[in-house]
């Protein structure tokens, strides 16, 4: 995504730098601010592999993988990246259930109404 750094930088007041890694605090008004790592472009693929294909991932669908990614990382355009990755997964494509054939439509002729 071309504007990803700009979108993160727009939330400057929520950014936190720890050990040369950017974190973003949750914007919710809670006592415990949750920190999520701002994932650089180079680590997005590795994060997707860990979350979707890893031991704890178990090749869940796009929504489940997206929830896991968003709980740990922050990056604009994550939704599109996760769904594209899950759609291209060969293991998921093999195991995905086939669409059931539908019954043919019939036309019914009725008599007078009522």
Characterization of this structure:
There is one protein chain. This protein is of the alpha+beta class and 114 residues long. The chain has one domain: Endonuclease III, domain 1. Helices cover 40% and strands 13% of the residues. The protein is built from 5 helices and 4 strands. The chain has helices at residues 4-9, 41-53, 62-72, 78-87, 90-95; strands spanning 15-18, 21-25, 35-38, 73-74. It has a 4-stranded mixed sheet. The mean pLDDT is 79. Keywords: Signal.
Low-confidence stretches: none
- Beta strands, count: 4
Principal-axes geometry comes out as elongated
Order of helices and strands: HEEEHHEHH
Range of strand content:
5-15%
CATH class: Mainly Alpha
Tally of structural domains: 1
Q: Average pLDDT across residues?
A: 79
Strand order of the largest sheet: 1-2-3-4
Cα distance spanning the termini: 61 Å
- The number of distinct helices, counting runs of at least 4 residues, comes to 5
Provide a compact summary of the structure:
This protein is of the alpha+beta class and 114 residues long. It has a single domain (5-95), classed as Orthogonal Bundle (Endonuclease III, domain 1). 40% of the residues lie in helices and 13% in strands.
């Amino acid at each position: 995504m071309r504007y990803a750094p700009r979108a993160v930088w727009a939330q400057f007041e929520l950014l936190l730098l720890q050990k040369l890694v950017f974190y973003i605090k949750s914007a919710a008004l809670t006592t415990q601010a949750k920190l999520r790592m701002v994932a650089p472009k180079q680590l997005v693929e590795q994060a997707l592999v860990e979350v979707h294909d890893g031991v704890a991932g178990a090749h869940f669908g796009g929504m489940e993988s997206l929830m896991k990614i968003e709980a740990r990382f922050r990056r604009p355009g994550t939704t599109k990246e996760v769904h594209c990755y899950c759609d291209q997964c060969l293991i998921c494509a093999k195991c995905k259930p086939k669409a059931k054939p539908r019954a043919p439509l019939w036309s019914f002729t009725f008599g007078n109404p009522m």
